[in-house]
Known about the structure:
The structure holds two protein chains of two kinds. Chain A is α+β, with helices and mostly antiparallel strands. Chain A has eight helices and 20 strands. In chain A, helix 2 (about 100-110) crosses helix 3 (about 115-130), helix 2 packs parallel to helix 4 (about 145-160) and helix 3 packs across helix 4. Chain B contains 13 helices and no strands. Chain B starts with a helix and ends with a helix. Classes of the chains: A alpha+beta, B mainly alpha. Chains A and B meet through strand 6 and helix 2 of A and helix 8, helix 9 and helix 13 of B.
Amino acid sequence: xxxxxxxxxxxxxxxxxxxxxxxxxxxxxxxxxxxxxxxxxxxxxxxxxxxxxxxxxxxxxxxxxxxxxxxxxxxxxxxxxxxxxxxxxxxxxxxxxxxxxxxxxxxxxxxxxxxxxxxxxxxxxxxxxxxxxxxxxxxxxxxxxxxxxxxxxxxxxxxxxxxxxxxxxxxxxxxxxxxxxxxxxxxxxxxxxxxxxxxxxxxxxxxxxxxxxxxxxxxxxxxxxxxxxxxxxxxxxxxxxxxxxxxxxxxxxxxxxxxxxxxxxxxxxxxxxxxxxxxxxxxxxxxxxxxxxxxxxxxxxxxxxxxxxxxxxxxxxxxxxxxxxxxxxxxxxxxxxxxxxxxxxxxxxxxxx
Amino acid sequence: xxxxxxxxxxxxxxxxxxxxxxxxxxxxxxxxxxxxxxxxxxxxxxxxxxxxxxxxxxxxxxxxxxxxxxxxxxxxxxxxxxxxxxxxxxxxxxxxxxxxxxxxxxxxxxxxxxxxxxxxxxxxxxxxxxxxxxxxxxxxxxxxxxxxxxxxxxxxxxxxxxxxxxxxxxxxxxxxxxxxxxxxxxxxxxxxxxxxxxxxxxxxxxxxxxxxxxxxxxxxxxxxxxxxxxxxxxxxxxxxxxxxxxxxxxxxxxxxxxxxxxxxxxxxxxx
Lengths: 353, 271
């Protein structure tokens, strides 16, 4: 296949911060390197600075003095967005209501002076790529949400952008459609081999789409890593709780053991401290017989979810523990149980205020 | 009492008022129009009589020019005012909308003060070049007066439309490589289309029927409302002035309907 996308640029962010005119700091000066061809996800709650970061990369916002944006080795800081050759997909899709689907997709090419014949060929290519055949002559207000999302993507990719920027592109869709389009989008990004930066507040989206995830909080980068790293080895309580479900327990560490109200858990490596914070993922806890574990508690509730059951156990730690157990084991509320956790699944976190 | 009956009873006052103060006088006007020596052909006089026809053309051209100039000025000003925050913005907007409070006579008076025989422009040009520029009583004076009271009507509509415009549309166009001019041409102006039609229609209809300003200024020019007035009061030509009134209404309405149908595609597409 001849390159359906252009060469994806590597992106380098150097000391880019953003302080707005009223003095609020949306983004603390941050460094970030995005490898050519990777999909990087900026993940965080609203107001964490992820969209500001994306807009700085796009050229819609200027970083504070001293910040630099580079595509490959070229300094883009003072280059306006219209000359950066970036493709953008907006949460609102921002499709032009006065143009047909085909004209929307071809708009960037028309602006570039691509002749009608080459334009039509590229539009056809994009229509096939995003599965919107038959909609070319439709008006935008005649499209469903999912179709609009595809058109927005086709329009952004049509110009062979050096970097594809996606700002919560699936947020406006209903849940089942979102899951399906997420899969499609994932395949598309992989096959294009384009450098993509994807902003979302949805951790499942971040996990599925990201080669790497940048977790952000309050205008700063909290952690950068692959989905596995971020999930299994969060460096802070915030990351642990934002990415996936997490039990956060507190207790003293003594002799390689975490001491909890309901017993103790072995740690893989630990120095003694009086008060430690640890994360345990619900699916790493196994329900065993009361006599077979060093940590025990009482089942407070059992919720059958289908593929698993969510069991809440009290008395084991300072707070009720959530346990994701297989849907086959039969336990009931009030039952005393033992809890078994592999040492490497108990992860000590730095104490935060 | 059924729900339906209740609604009809509620509508009754409206029906009475509409009949008494709108439909009956209109019907009367139509009848009076045919009562003169010309009979029914009085209605064609507006097109066939050279003097009336010239006045009609004058009025339509003036109203169209006012509408276009107003739209151009109000769009640029409206875009700027809606997109920028600066000290004194609220005062400026209040001043721009101030002419809404003035009757046409006052607007005419202002134009005379500006460009009349004793006006400011004349005084300045007299000092500079020795020649006194006076245009208050010409069609330019009338144009300026109409512009003055059309701009506030249009600018508020445009500002409201600009506020509702998705900024993402412009950002998307820019990301695709569109220059600032191309963004305006391809995205902003088409999106404002419905607002142009709506506010332009009001500006046009107002300019077609405005009387106070014309009455104050129009010594050298004839516009339809002035013509109706002179036929009615000076010539006591009731049938012709009635026919001209109906003609004025029908022509203004027809041109607006035409404008709407032309922009129909845009209006629907921008919905």
